[in-house]
Amino acid sequence: MRETTARKVPAPRLIEYISAVLDTEGLPAADARTVAELMVEADLLGGDGHGVFRLPRYLERLRAGGFNPRPDIRIDRSRGAMAVVDGDNGFGHLVMKRCAEEAIARARSHGVGWVGAHHSNHAGAAGVYAAMPMAEGMIGIYVAVGSANHMAPWGGIDMLLSTNPVAIAIPAGNGPPILLDMATTVAAYGKVKLAAQRGEQMPEGWMIDQEGKPLTDPAKASGGSLLPIGGPKGYGLSLVFGLLAGTLNGAAMGRDVVDYNADDSSVTNTGQFIVALDIASFTDPETFRHEIDRIGAEMKGARLRPGFDSIRLPGERALAERARRSAEGIPIAAPVLEKLNDIAAGSGVAPL
């Protein structure tokens, strides 16, 4: 009988598995490990559509030449606090880790570091990268052009925009930090793919068909449009984020965006940027963190609207999930686990 429940896999075991698979596919061992750690970090935070779930698709593109397994990731423009990185078509995880490290270094010298990227690729969960400056006591901001266009301009039917996510991480003192991680669409497309794989229907409000009617069957998603958050406001955010993360960096935007879900071999030229802000350039860091604690407590202590039992801060659920999954393991749905074990068998790697 086919297993239908999710199985929990310890994070270190999942990292070991992904690293071994990528190593057999030609990535240098250190790069394979880095990609594995960042993919699993997405799973730990509850971003199931951006973690190990993506491995089968990454491998399809890698084997078809869609990714460069040994990229020369380098800075090709630099001026003061700013830089642009050429990802050389490497895994987006490697490119954005390099960008985050560069932004942090420049923030230490200039108070701010803004580093964009072109010829990158899908990098997983946005919050993972915004949290890198936060781990150094800074504020982190990350924006990306999504890896496929699944949204029409407000009022249109042509798919010209992606989910174009933003993540902002703000350190706190004794209280929980702020970790906002959101797409400019009501739902990220990874959630649509997960629903399809699990045989589930989508809620109304995620997508519409070309006649503007609700679309709830994820198997028909290719003919529909994701809906922007806040209607035309979300459309405007998606457009502006795409211009800043894509066009400004010489990366793809609009019709130039390659659908990495459908195209195995074309170079996507994905664009992203990350900003690191040194709090000490603005105010006393300890005072700032104390104020984040105070304001967070103020928000959570607000009177509740009927039907609500609590108020959460952005990222509170994800960070609680990270603690739980670190202790209990990462749940992997049976269909995903079956695919991963098929990959293991083909790669000569121990199954999960």
Topology:
Blueprint: E1 7-9, H1 11-24, H2 29-44, H3 55-63, E2 74-79, E3 82-86, H4 92-110, E4 112-120, H5 126-135, E5 139-144, E6 166-170, E7 178-182, H6 189-198, E8 207-208, E9 214-215, E10 225-226, H7 232-245, E11 270-277, H8 285-300, H9 316-328, E12 330-332, H10 334-347
Parallel strand pairs: 3-4
Antiparallel strand pairs: 1-12, 2-3, 4-11, 5-6, 5-11, 6-7, 8-9, 8-10
Write a concise keyword list for the protein shown above.
352 residues, 38% helix, Hypothetical Oxidoreductase Yiak, Chain: A, domain 1, three-stranded antiparallel beta sheet, 10 helices, seven-stranded mixed beta sheet, alpha+beta, Ribosomal Protein S8, Chain: A, domain 1, 12 strands, globular
What does it look like?
With 352 residues, the chain is of the alpha+beta class. The protein folds into 2 domains: 100 residues, Malate/L-lactate/L-sulpholactate dehydrogenase, four-helix barrel (Hypothetical Oxidoreductase Yiak, Chain: A, domain 1, Orthogonal Bundle), CATH 1.10.1530.10; 183 residues, Malate/L-lactate/L-sulpholactate dehydrogenase, NADPH binding domain (Ribosomal Protein S8, Chain: A, domain 1), CATH 3.30.1370.60. 38% of the residues lie in helices and 16% in strands. The protein has 10 helices and 12 strands. The strands form 3 sheets. The protein has a 7-stranded mixed beta sheet. It has a 3-stranded antiparallel beta sheet with strand order 9-8-10, with no helix packed on it. Strand 3, helix 4 and strand 4 form a beta-alpha-beta unit. The two termini are 18 Å apart. The mean pLDDT is 95.
